[in-house]
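Help wanted!
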Amino acid sequence: MNINIDNIIRAINTVSNWINYLTGAGTPYPVGYNIICLTKRCNLRCKMCNIWQESSPNVDALNARLIAETISNSHILQRMPIVSFTGGEPFLRTDISEIMREIFNKTNIKKIVIATNGVLTNKIIKDLTEVLNKDSSVDKRIHIQISLDGIGDVHDRIRGVKGTFERVNSTIKKLKDLKAIYKNSLTIGILGIYQFENKNDFKSLYQYASDNNIDFGYGIIINTEYNKVETSEYNRDLLKTAIARTGLNGLEKNIKETLEGWLTAEQKIEKMQCFAGYNSVFWETNGDIYPCHNSSHLSSFKMGNILENDFDTIWKSRNANLVRQKVKNCTIKGDCMLGGCNISSQKVQYCIPHYLLKFLTAGRFDLYKHLGYY
Ligand code: SF4
Ligand code: SF4
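Answered by r_m:
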């Protein structure tokens, strides 16, 4: 069992979140996701996302100083070691290296995760080099998570722009060169979203990640504000297809187990609790604070705005508590699959008893398995 100070703090915060969830007492501490949307602008035209069609994207109001000061002035956010950037395409921000440097210099954040479409090769390398050159001596890390849904034309078709795969491929090669210099400070991974258009290509994607010796993450397409087409019924069909495919069965065992876990959980989703707003927080480009990405189009889920109030005041406010009550009854549930991470949402809830029982039985008893999550 991996015991370190971050895990212990995470465990304590998880218990306190449970107590807050059940009784309303105390303050929840986000142990899951702290996600900042840096921009809604995007240079791709993906089939499963219409963020680029938004007629009046919000201004990118979150500058480097504001983000770093919001985190460093917050007792709550300072307890989270990881922050994630999303978009749109985060590297379209001209000041992204300044944002990273300010966060590393002024806050307790140890790791920044950036979700990118990987198309702006030169800018990505230039921005990262700038940050790593200055901060590589300290214990800070950057993880670049590149969206890749298929090899060659498959990826180009899904992403709506010809030549996208080649550009992503070139970015990955250059990132690997950079990693050779900054071994401990940079990690690289791809994230593939399983959908009808690539259901025959997931194995090649996995192979691509293995060949390049980079992390392979995967998710299943979900229904979000920016993707009105898909439904949970569609997801269920996809999951069944994925599990049934012999090619996928030949991949690592845990991929199949995770897909089965999603399917099981998806059937039970109405009974599952959502911990968004307790374990997770999402920053909109205009400074609005929401419990999760998927509710960020609903004004009734807005907790406050960091241009008007400091984060802790917002997080502890009566309004934030009212939003948390709405989260408990959120009707998006089935479509968002609890933020696309229903299994981890359940795992967070049960992690204390899970780890304790696993430890006491030397790994023989697995609570998640016992509860039927996989
Ligand atoms: S999925 Fe990502 S890369 Fe594609 S349009 Fe949406 S924000 Fe842009
Ligand atoms: S059910 Fe989904 S959309 Fe609703 S609050 Fe939870 S994660 Fe957000």
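OP: Thanks! One thing I noticed: The first helix runs from residue 5 to 23.
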